[in-house]
Amino acid sequence: MAIPKQERQDIRLLKRKQTRWERRQITVEGEKAILELLKSTWITERIYFTAGRELSGRLRESLQPSTSLAEVSSKDMELMTSLKTPPGLLALATMPDKAGRAEHTAGVWLYLDRMNDPGNVGTLVRVADWFGMAGVVMSTDSSDPFGPKAIQSAMGSAFHTPVRIQNFADLPARWKSRVVGLDAGGQNLFELHDQEAPTMLVVGSESHGVSEDVRSACHVMASIPGAGRAESLNASVAGAIAAASLVQQGVAVGQGR
Q1: N or C: which end of the chain has fewer CB within 10 A?
Q2: Same domain, 167 and 211
Q3: Confidence at residue 257, expressed as pLDDT on a 0 to 100 scale
Q4: Using 50, 70 and 90 to split pLDDT, how confident is the model at 255?
């Protein structure tokens, strides 16, 4: 039941972004997220579970051939977890080669510009997955989409949604043929003309909005009209409303739509 101290320490170090990317390993917690992981092209190396916990039949049936199981003490799980309340189920996974390096495909890509909140990053990855968008691109100074909180917020979508980490200025031109940024002072998003449909939809940071260099490259700045007193919308909420609007307008957002 006890695991070697070094193994436990190796898991704990994956809380650090630098370590995750150097090793190209992450941890995933909770049954729902782990089930999505097991269905993906990611390699699930090992699943740790607390002593006395019964693994569901669905989980056992989904195990990859190379996945091992390890029963651990509650104390070990508390030391390894990245969550305030550990669910008692933690997987160690290896990133595929294309993680963070998605290639361009037709449709609408979300671009996350300097988005610092991992919860918003994960939620917007899930939004892109829900609406069948082409994928998500994010600046290098955005929160890590494969960090623990982002993974939890994405609820498994991080393993199925194409993600590319690259600054806007460095993206090839084909990604930026029609860029629409979200901004409270822009034109009404719901009244965009067909020729203004984006190939990239930019959501800015929670504190500062779209950065000046990205704003200057946008073909249109669009706003989500409101009627209440709130000063602004949460970044992930704004991104979700914008994505829903594009789908409602019949824009080919990608992945079969």
Answers
A1: N
A2: yes
A3: 42
A4: low
pTM score: 0.93
Statement to judge: residues 120 and 192 lie in one domain: yes
Range of the domain at 90: 5-94
Number of domains in the chain: 2
CATH number of the domain where residue 52 is located: 3.30.1330.30
Question: Where do the DSSP E strands lie in the chain?
Answer: 25-29, 43-50, 68-72, 89-94, 109-112, 135-138, 163-165, 179-188, 200-203, 220-223
> Which tens digit of pLDDT belongs to each residue from 158-206?
999 999 999 999 999 999 999 999 998 888 988 877 666 789 999 998 8
What span, in angstroms and rounded, lies between the C-alpha atoms of 127 and 135? 10
Computed from CA positions of residues 40, 43, 49, 53, in that sequence, does the dihedral angle turn out positive or negative? positive
CA distances from 134 to 12, 48, 103, 255 (A): 33, 33, 10, 6
Q: Classify residue 190 as exposed, middle or buried by CB count within 10 Å of its CB (0-12, 13-18, 19+).
A: middle
